[in-house]
Every structure is written in structure tokens, then in C-alpha cells.
Design a protein that fits this description.
Blueprint: H1 3-15, E1 27-28, H2 31-37, E2 48-55, E3 58-65, H3 67-75, H4 87-108, H5 115-137, H6 146-151, H7 162-187, H8 194-205, H9 209-218
Parallel strand pairs: 1-3
Antiparallel strand pairs: 2-3
Helix pairs in contact: 1-4, 3-4, 4-5, 5-7, 7-8, 7-9
Length: 220
């Protein structure tokens, strides 16, 4: 199985949300091809982008990931050892896999997905999947630095539009609040409750757009 396929399997198992489509089959690494598919004059300004087109038969999807990201992850696989050296590239790739998986899973249930919902779920997915990997790689020792690394001091890309900046900022804010409370309730108390944490993540995954936002902000 490819690295992206294994990352998708991690999300599918984490949320008990399998899909029939393998993300690797939809991978695009040529920026010129990604631009042409969107009829844009220049390559994407990011290392990751989910391409979606609605057709009479459903959706057409493609996941653009910069080849250099995959090259670096290939040299140091985060599924074997996730650390400061590959965390950034892992999050870039995982975000794309998250977008692809959530869209295909939702489409299978005939559910509409908002852009804000997509970004919020990806932020949670990055935290939850990295937490799962680090707990396994560190023999159950809690990675206390993970939340700070993912949610504090992050900066948005300068070329984003005002609407994009607002959407990404809101998704980041809601995900940070939700994940911080996950830690407080299930991981930082005297006795960790991993089964309850997993149940909460799976329940959150299945909420609709407005309910997901409300729950992220009100969960305590």
C-alpha cells in the first residue's frame, strides 16, 4: 500500500469510516496539470489542493500534492517515526488525504459538505491522527507538545483572499478549542480514557456542518 493509502487507512480506522476509493488513484503531483484542470494560468500557490468538479454523474476529484513533499516523506516515513523533521510535511499530506476521504465518505451518504466543515475536520484529523501515531511510537507516552506545535503560532499563507483567510482562521480556532478540550477531558486527567476519546472523535466526524461547529465550540 502507498504512503497516502496507509494514511487514508489510518483515518478510516480512526473514525470507522471506510470508503471504496483509494486516494492514491486520484493523486496529481504535476503543478502544471493541476493548473490546467482548473483552467488557471499559473500553478497552485500551495503544496496541497483538493480539486472538485460536479458533473451529472456525481463528483470528479483529484488531489494535488507537491512531489517534493512526497519525496521527503518517502525518505523519512511518519508512520514509522513522526517527529519535528517530518511533522510539517505529514500535516500537508494528511490534510489532502483528509479532504479526499471526508468528501468521498460524505458523498457515499449523499451528504453536502461546506468548505468550512472540510477545513475544520482536516484540522481535527491532523491532531487526532498524529496523536494516534505518536502514542503508538512512544509506547503510550502522551505527546504533550503536539497541541502547541499544531495550533499555536501558525501563520496563514499571504496570498489567500479575505474569504479564505476568514474560513481557515475559523476552522483553526474551532479545531483548537475542540482538541484542547479532548486533551483536558480524556488525556490529561489522572486516568486516561482512550476508548472515550475515540468515541468522541467518531461522533464528531458524523456531525453535519452547523452541528460540528457548535459542538467544537461548546464541547466541555
Amino acid at each position: 500500500m502507498t504512503l497516502l493509502g496507509r494514511m487514508q487507512s489510518l483515518l478510516a480506522a480512526l473514525y470507522d469510516a471506510p470508503v471504496a476509493h483509494d486516494v492514491h488513484d486520484y493523486l496529481i503531483t504535476d503543478p502544471a496539470h493541476a493548473a490546467a484542470l482548473q483552467e488557471l494560468p499559473s500553478p497552485p500557490g500551495t503544496d496541497e489542493q483538493l480539486l472538485i468538479a460536479a458533473t451529472d454523474d456525481g463528483l470528479e476529484l483529484g488531489l494535488y500534492l507537491d512531489a517534493s513533499v512526497l519525496e521527503r516523506l518517502g525518505r523519512r516515513c511518519p508512520l514509522v517515526a513522526l517527529d519535528e523533521s517530518n511533522l510539517g510535511d505529514y500535516c500537508t499530506a494528511l490534510e489532502g488525504v483528509s479532504h479526499f476521504h471526508y468528501v468521498t465518505w460524505s458523498a457515499g451518504l449523499d451528504r453536502r459538505v461546506s468548505l468550512l466543515e472540510l477545513e475544520l475536520q482536516a484540522e481535527v484529523d491532523k491532531y487526532a491522527s498524529a496523536l494516534s501515531l505518536l502514542l503508538a511510537q512512544r509506547e503510550g507516552r502522551f505527546p504533550g507538545e503536539l497541541f502547541q506545535r499544531l495550533f499555536e503560532g501558525c501563520r496563514l499563507l499571504p496570498h489567500l483572499t479575505a474569504a479564505e483567510r476568514e474560513r481557515y482562521s475559523e476552522a483553526h480556532r474551532c479545531a483548537a478549542r475542540f482538541c484542547e478540550r479532548l486533551e483536558t477531558r480524556y488525556l490529561r486527567r489522572r486516568q486516561a480514557r482512550p476508548a472515550a476519546l475515540l468515541a468522541e472523535l467518531r461522533s464528531f466526524y458524523r456531525l453535519g456542518s452547523h452541528a460540528k461547529l457548535r459542538h467544537a465550540l461548546q464541547f466541555a
